[in-house]
Specification:
This protein is mainly beta and 164 residues long. The protein has one domain.
C-alpha cells in the first residue's frame, strides 16, 4: 500500500533534519498509466486495457519543532490522458493528501490521516473512481491503519495504475 511506503519516507526524512528546522521537497516527474480489466474490478471489460501518460507533482514538508516532535505532510498530484483498446479517450487525475502527521521525539510513535482520490473518466459516462480516508498510527514500531470511508481497498489498488 502506498501509505506504508510514504510512512517510511516520512520517518527517514524526519530523522535527517535538526530540531527547529524545516525541509521542503518538490519534485515533478512524468508518469504512465495502465489499467487492465484483468486486475481492476472497476474497469469496464469492453474497454480493454487503458493506457496513458501524464505528469506528477510531489510536495513534502518536514518540520522538527524545538519540543522534539516532527510534523510531516505530503501532497501528491498527477493527471493525464489515456486511450483504451477501442480507441476511446480518457482523462485521469490522482490526488493523495497525507495531512501533517506527527512523529514524537523518540521516533516510536506516528499519527497521520491520508485522503486518496483517483478518477479515470471516459466518454459516455464511463468512469473508475477510487476514494478513501485512512488514519495511520505507528505505536512502538507497529503500524495500524484504520479505514474511515471510501472504496480504496487492496482489491481496487490496481485500478489506479500509475507508474513512475
Amino acid at each position: 500500500m502506498k501509505s506504508i511506503c510514504a510512512l517510511a519516507l516520512f520517518v527517514i526524512a524526519a530523522a535527517a533534519i535538526p530540531a527547529a528546522a524545516e525541509i521542503v521537497v518538490t519534485s515533478t516527474l512524468p508518469v504512465t498509466l495502465r489499467v487492465d480489466p484483468a486486475t481492476c474490478p472497476l474497469a469496464p471489460p469492453a474497454a480493454g486495457v487503458i493506457t496513458g501518460s501524464g505528469v506528477s507533482t510531489f510536495f513534502m514538508t518536514v518540520t522538527n519543532t524545538p519540543s522534539g516532535s516532527t510534523h510531516v505532510g505530503v501532497h501528491f498530484r498527477a493527471h493525464g490522458k489515456a486511450v483504451d483498446e477501442t480507441g476511446e479517450t480518457w482523462t485521469w487525475s490522482d490526488a493523495d493528501l497525507f495531512q501533517p502527521g506527527v512523529v514524537n521525539s523518540s521516533g516510536d510513535s506516528f499519527v497521520q490521516t491520508i485522503v486518496e482520490g483517483f478518477h479515470l473518466i471516459g466518454k459516455n459516462g464511463q468512469k473508475i473512481m477510487i476514494q478513501g480516508v485512512f488514519h495511520i498510527r505507528v505505536i512502538d514500531g507497529v503500524p495500524v491503519v484504520e479505514f474511515a470511508k471510501g472504496n480504496e481497498t487492496e482489491e481496487n489498488e490496481p485500478c489506479e495504475g500509475i507508474f513512475f
